[in-house]
Structures are given as structure tokens and as C-alpha cells.
Design a protein that fits this description.
mainly alpha, two-stranded antiparallel sheet, elongated, PEX8-like, Related to peroxisomal membrane protein Pex17, 2 strands
Length: about 650
């Protein structure tokens, strides 16, 4: 019978099903048609009719039917195929709470699945990629349906390598990351001089195929399964082997991305260099694939670091720093994905990053070797390739956490040239993020006691760079933080205050002098910046920010300078031209005085100035108004007892 006639007959039979219909014959015909139909619409139609047809009654009881089906998985077929049958039954009857299966039958199926999995892991050959990928797929989909007892019976020592291989290296998984370099040949220059990555290209079709594959589309649950396996394996060497494997994969991923023309384009400049199809279709699909790779890698490393904390074999001095170093190298290789995605709210990433840094911080020599391993390619110069700048950003953000344990010569050789080059370049365009990172590292260097010599040598250059780039390329928040930190570092009891006692006064005078010529118009806030997410009471001008910065430093400067600069600070507040900004500065001045940041000595001095030295009126009304009030109260300047009434032209009051 031709296929279309057979399909029509079957559809009519399904729509008019009665108890007298030959159910096995109908299902057999349906199975045959599903594998031979060429028209996708016919396949969809037949599937819909099968699912919506009245359910035939079984001639066998449910449990007997299940046992009969499972019995068909015998020695005549590979073990990994048995998993498909058992998993289909377990998943097909729904979760335990639906109660479609008795507890005894569900337990039987779970035990059968676990036993079949363990046997399949032992018997499947290493070159049987389909079989190994099927094992990974089935266990991943069924794991949430298994009881704790059934999960504990899995052979995790054998399962973990299969999961890692199937996920990261198989043709059904991430293909060892080589797909990323292969797309470079399909990125071509369009007639408008922009780059085009066509939707019809072979590399894009490969990306779509990977996105739709069962393993890649379930990277989230799969990474959690790998993480659980890492926590359960008894052989600690399997944990280190998994991390080695992940390091190799991510290093290959980074290398393949570098070979790609798309890696040479900054994210903020994509609209200028990519055509519309690439910008809106093909490139988003690529990032849709890469972002889960980053998340999955982090989830796996979280379990590895958790294992380090509780496994003596991994926590020893010979192994722990190596694992921490590998973790940071993996994060570095993934950083070109991380910076696009943003991980501020990804707690697992923050845990992995900070835990690895904490572990490595206990081993000074390992830190030195690690920083030399990831140092910029050309120290003392700004990287030209966007990917190299991305890696320099990781270097700066990470090295900031190690400045306290680095010897001075390492700081001078590695950190100072790097931060100096990026500070000198300014924070224009794509350099803004790395420029701000250079500021943070500089302050961290200055804050380390062993770097007093480097601080003295580089402090003038750093202060000059602050004033050169603010407010165009440095946020008000970072400028204020930088100056407050500098005043703290140069004021007693720091060592720098002994060798450079005049430095606090110089810094304050620089702020005061700059505020006299500062702009009074509000500083524009760029979308996407940290300031854009913070609701400020009022827009602030450069003049107002400089005034607030000086007020911030009042909690840090020496007492003799504090006594001198309190009235100057009050004058600066009243020099702010905009009324709303001026009132905001007054409120901040008050918060500095009463907010609890002042130590007892500074509090007493400020209280005396505020209450008995005219500070209150000075802040509220300004110098001129206070002087005018004093003249009125003085009434000509004649000396008299406190509380006496002035003589009004000798007029008698009697």
C-alpha cells in the first residue's frame, strides 16, 4: 500500500478507535510510518493523532507489562541500549508524586536503571562514542527521578570520566572547542566593508546543531550531575583529572577564539564592524552557546573547590595551590565570555573565584609563579588586540588580591608597569573598564606596607592621572574613593606619613585649587556605568564632587590639618553655585560630623569648632553672612559684659 494511503487509513483508525481494533497492529504501522515518512508535516500530524487518540486498554496488568518490557533488554543487545528502555519507562510514567507506579515497581525500575548503568559503564568500549554519550544522556535525564538510595548505588568512579568526555569532547557535546576556530573561514567582508557571518554558512549550521543536541541543550543539569559525581568519587585522582581536562578544554576554547576575526572587535564597536545579520542573528546564537559553557565550567569547579575543603588528599600543600592555580587559569580562559555576560549576581562564580584566591594566598611562591604565567605579553604598554586587553583586565583584577603578599621587586616588575601604561592611556571608550581596574590595583599597591618605596615614586604620577581623567573618563565614585584612600595612606600612623609629612596638606591644597576652576554643570552619567544604577539625590557637578571629596577626607587627615581645613571646607561648600548641590554638600558635611567615622580626638575638635568657634553658622550661612551677623551683634565693637544691652545713642530707658 502506498505511504499516503497507509497514513490515511491509520489516521482514520486512530480517530474511530474501538475496543475491537487491533492495537498492536496500529502501533506497529505507526512505528513503521514514523521512520519512513519524508514530509515533516505528515510526521507532525501522525504524532499528534497518536498522542490524542483514546488510550487502548492493556491486556496485561501494568506491572506485568513493565516486567515483560524490561525482560526484553537481554544479552542480545548492548548494555547502553537497555538504558533507553528502562529510562523510557521510568520517565514515561511520570514522577513519584503522580503515583502512576506503585512504590515497589518504581524501586524496581530505579534499581534496574542503576544496575544497567553500572554494567554499561564497564562494558561499553572507549571508542563507542554513541554508547558513552547515550549513558551520559540517560543518567542526566533520569537523575532527578532517582531516589537517594538509587543514586548512592551508581559507580561514580566510572561515571565521572564518561560524563566529562561526553560533555566536552564528543561529537554530541562541545567537540573539544574546535568548532569556534572553524567559523573564521565563514566570516567574510561584505560589500559595505563590514564583516558578515552568513546564516547559510556551514559553521553557523554547526552551531545550531550543537544548540539543539540533547547534551548541549541540557548543560545546566549535566554540569550539576558532574559536580555531584565529583563530590562522590572515592579516588581523589579523578578530581584532579577532571580539572586537568577542563583546563585543557578552556585553553583550547581561548586559542580557537583568538583565531576568529570576531575576537578582534570590541563589544562597544560591533555596530561599526558587523553587518545586521551577524549582529542580530548569528553572533547572538554563538553567545547563546558559549554562555552555558562558562556557567557549566563554574558549577563543576565549585564542586572541586568544595572537595578541596574536605578532602585531606586534595588540601595538602602539594596539591591545593596547584588546583587553585588551575581554577584561576580556567576562569582566565573563560574571561572573554565572563565580561560579556557579567557575573555580579552569579554567586557560584564569586565563590569559585574568591575561594581559589584565598587558597593561593597561603602560598607566596605559587602566587608569584601564577602572576608571571598570566602577565601581559608586553609589560609597560597597552595591548592592541581586544582579547589581549581582556586578559590584561583579568590580570589586574586578580593581582589586586595578591598585593599584600607580593615582594616589592615583583610589584615593581609586574604590577607597576602594567598599571602605569593603562593609567597613562586614559579611560576612553573600550579602555574605561581596564583603566578603572588599574586605579584599583594602584590603590592596593599603595596600601601594602612593603611597597612604601613604590608608593613614594608613583604617587605624584597617580595623582596627576586622577586630575587628568576626571570627570570625563573616571567616575565620581572612584575619584572620591581614590582620594580618601590616598589621604588615609599618607596620614599618621602610616609609614608614609613619616617620610612625607607634607603630603596630606599638598593633596588637600590640590583639591581646593582644582575646585576654584572646576565646572559647575552636572556631570553626565553614561548608561551602563555603576553610577547609572544608583539613584543620586541630585546631579553633581565637578565642583560639587571635588567639595564632597575634600569632605570625605576630613575623617583621615591629621588633627592640625583638620583644625585648619574645617573652615576652608565650609567655604568650599558655599562656593558651590547650584543651590541643590550646595544643600547636598551641607548634608554630607553634617553626616561626616555625626556619622560615626570620626575618632574621639577628631570628634572633640569638630565639636568645638561647630559649637564655640562659629562652625555651625559658617556651614549653614557661609563666611560673609557669619561676619555680618557678628558685626550686628557687636554693635560698633565696644567692649561689654556678656548679656549686656547696647547703648542706643545714649537713650535713657527710665
Amino acid at each position: 500500500m502506498p505511504g499516503d494511503r497507509m497514513l490515511g487509513t491509520l489516521l482514520r483508525a486512530l480517530q474511530t478507535y474501538t475496543q475491537q481494533e487491533d492495537t498492536p497492529r496500529l502501533f506497529g504501522t505507526a512505528s513503521s510510518l514514523l521512520t519512513t515518512l519524508n514530509n515533516p508535516l505528515n510526521v507532525t500530524l501522525l504524532t499528534t493523532q497518536l498522542l490524542s487518540a483514546p488510550a487502548p486498554e492493556r491486556t496485561l496488568p501494568k506491572d506485568d507489562w513493565i516486567r515483560a518490557v524490561v525482560s526484553g533488554a537481554d544479552e542480545h543487545s548492548p548494555r547502553w541500549r537497555h538504558l533507553l528502555v528502562i529510562a523510557g519507562l521510568l520517565l514515561g510514567f511520570g514522577p513519584a508524586e503522580d503515583e502512576y507506579l506503585s512504590s515497589s515497581m518504581r524501586s524496581t525500575l530505579e534499581n534496574a536503571l542503576v544496575n544497567a548503568t553500572n554494567l554499561a559503564l564497564q562494558e561499553t568500549l572507549d571508542d563507542d562514542e554513541l554508547g558513552l554519550s547515550t549513558i551520559a544522556l540517560v543518567v542526566n535525564h533520569c537523575f532527578s527521578s532517582l531516589s537517594d538510595h538509587a543514586r548512592s548505588s551508581l559507580d561514580y568512579n566510572t561515571l565521572l570520566p564518561v560524563l566529562m568526555r561526553s560533555t566536552f569532547h564528543s561529537a554530541h557535546g562541545l567537540r573539544s572547542a574546535y568548532f569556534l576556530g572553524a567559523l573564521d573561514r565563514d566570516v567574510q567582508a561584505a560589500p559595505n566593508a563590514k564583516l558578515n557571518w552568513s546564516e547559510q554558512s556551514g559553521s553557523f549550521q554547526e552551531i545550531k546543531e550543537m544548540l539543539s543536541s540533547p547534551l548541549v541543550s541540557s548543560l545546566g543539569p549535566l554540569s550539576r550531575l558532574i559536580g555531584h559525581s565529583l563530590e562522590q568519587v572515592q579516588d581523589s585522582r579523578l578530581v584532579t583529572a577532571a580539572l586537568d581536562d577542563l583546563e585543557i578544554f578552556t585553553k583550547t576554547l581561548l586559542t580557537q577564539w583568538r583565531l576568529n576575526k570576531l575576537a578582534g572587535i570590541e563589544q562597544v564597536e560591533q555596530g561599526e564592524h558587523l553587518d545586521e545579520a551577524t549582529l542580530n542573528t548569528t553572533l547572538p546564537a554563538l553567545w547563546k552557546l558559549l554562555q552555558p559553557v562558562m556557567f557549566a565550567s563554574v558549577i563543576i569547579m565549585r564542586s572541586i573547590l568544595g572537595r578541596i575543603l574536605g578532602d585531606g588528599a586534595l588540601a595538602c600543600d602539594d596539591v591545593a595551590p596547584k588546583l587553585a592555580r588551575q581554577t584561576l587559569l580556567i576562569l582566565r580562559s573563560l574571561y572573554f565570555i565572563t565580561t560579556r555576560q557579567g557575573v555580579a549576581t552569579f554567586s557560584q562564580y564569586n565563590f569559585v573565584y574568591c575561594a581559589a584566591i584565598d587558597i593561593l594566598n597561603a602560598y607566596s611562591m605559587s602566587v608569584q609563579h601564577f602572576l608571571r604565567e598570566i602577565q601581559p605579553l608586553q609589560l609597560g604598554s597597552v595591548a592592541q588586540h581586544p582579547l589581549d586587553r581582556n586578559l590584561d583586565l583579568f590580570f589586574l583584577n586578580t593581582s589586586e588580591h595578591f598585593t599584600l603578599i607580593l615582594p616589592p621587586h615583583m610589584t615593581a616588575e609586574l604590577l607597576v608597569p602594567t598599571v602605569t601604561s593603562y593609567l597613562a592611556a586614559g579611560g576612553k571608550g573600550p579602555l574605561l573598564e581596564i583603566y578603572e581596574a588599574a586605579h584599583s590595583v594602584t590603590l592596593s599597591i599603595f596600601s601594602s606596607p612593603q611597597n612604601s618605596t613604590a608608593t613614594i615614586e608613583n604617587l605624584p604620577f597617580y595623582v596627576d592621572s586622577l586630575f587628568r581623567v576626571f570627570p570625563k573618563n573616571l567616575s565620581a565614585r572612584q575619584f572620591r574613593l581614590a582620594f580618601k584612600t590616598l589621604l588615609k595612606l599618607t596620614s599618621p600612623p602610616s609609614e608614609l606619613a613619616v617620610s612625607q609629612p607634607l603630603m596630606p596638606a599638598i593633596l588637600l591644597e590640590l583639591l581646593h585649587s582644582r575646585s576654584q576652576q572646576a565646572s559647575t554643570t552636572p556631570i553626565p552619567i553614561h548608561p551602563g556605568s555603576p553610577e547609572a544604577d544608583i539613584e543620586l539625590p541630585v546631579p553633581l557637578s565637578e565642583q560639587a564632587v571635588l567639595t564632597l571629596t575634600l569632605l570625605d577626607t576630613l575623617t583621615q587627615i591629621p588633627l592640625e590639618l583638620l583644625d585648619e581645613w574645617l573652615p576652608i571646607a565650609a567655604d568650599m561648600v558655599h562656593d558651590v553655585q547650584d543651590q541643590d548641590m550646595r544643600e547636598h554638600c551641607k548634608e554630607h558635611f553634617w553626616q561626616i560630623l555625626v556619622g560615626g567615622e570620626l575618632d574621639p580626638e577628631r570628634s572633640r575638635l569638630c565639636h568645638a569648632w561647630w559649637s564655640t568657634a562659629g562652625g555651625r553658622a559658617w556651614v549653614l550661612y557661609g563666611r560673609r553672612e557669619e561676619e555680618g551677623r557678628g558685626k550686628e551683634d557687636d554693635d560698633g565693637g565696644e567692649p561689654m559684659m556678656s548679656g549686656a544691652l547696647p547703648d542706643r545713642n545714649g537713650e535713657s530707658k527710665l
